[in-house]
User: What shape does this take?
Amino acid sequence: MTLAIALRLGRISNLPTVWSNVLVGALLAGGSLTDARLPLLLVSMSLFYVGGMFLNDAFDREFDARIRPDRPIPSGQVSAGQVFGFGFGMLFVGLALLAQAGYGFAGGTAWRPMAAGLALALAIVAYDRWHKDNPLSPLIMGLCRVFVYLGAAFTFSAAPPAAVYLGAGILLCHLIGLTFAAKKEHLGRLDSVWPLAFLAVAIVYGLLLARDSAATLVLVLAFAAWVVFAVRLLFRRAKGDVPRAVVSLIAGISLLDAILLAGHGHLAPAACAVAAFVLTLALQRWVSGT
Assistant: This one.
């Protein structure tokens, strides 16, 4: 397997959104940017994401052979067995790193990060295996990101505060709307639009957080404008609009993370999340985000 194929299979352009997810979970649970466990979390969650993307292609190989024959497996650039092996291997290493985060540091939270990681691995495999024609697949995909928040949070706190769970619920709503759109990507159209209402939940919550924070309000307005831009593409339905909207909403995850961070007083990390948004957009021009 060449590096170019691996990068394409792993949709590495979207990795900065995972990193900003880790920042939210860690900092809202009381962690700090200087804690040695944070780099461990970033690597672990990156492996979960890339491994999950590998498995997505491996499980979708028959569908891709009909609809997207240019993907690496149906085009013969790599075997399904290799992709399965690397995918499950990355999930295993990611889980081992969470175990290290829980048990390998003074004041660690023992089994809790690993438990969240196991739930994340199960959600990833469940989504990859059964997401086609599954009405619950947007929920399962959203749970994958929720467990990134929780895995990071439980690394720093045995009992994360309510802000972590509220943030996870808001992110879940965004992912439900996003995944609904992504499921229609190969069709180039939307059959119904009501699930997109989930995308508005984050804007409403952001406005509540921004009542006493001008910086948060700016981020909420930027996020709202970005969501409107993506939804407009979905409604316009010109060729290529649906996949473009999907990758735009994926990049917007980091803007949502910035809102949650700024809304709880973490302005410098919020700036890092904005940088993750910009980096995701730049990388999506190099490696497809879907």
The CA atoms of residues 38 and 273 lie 15 Å apart. Confidence is low (pLDDT under 50) at residues 185-189. The radius of gyration is 18 Å.
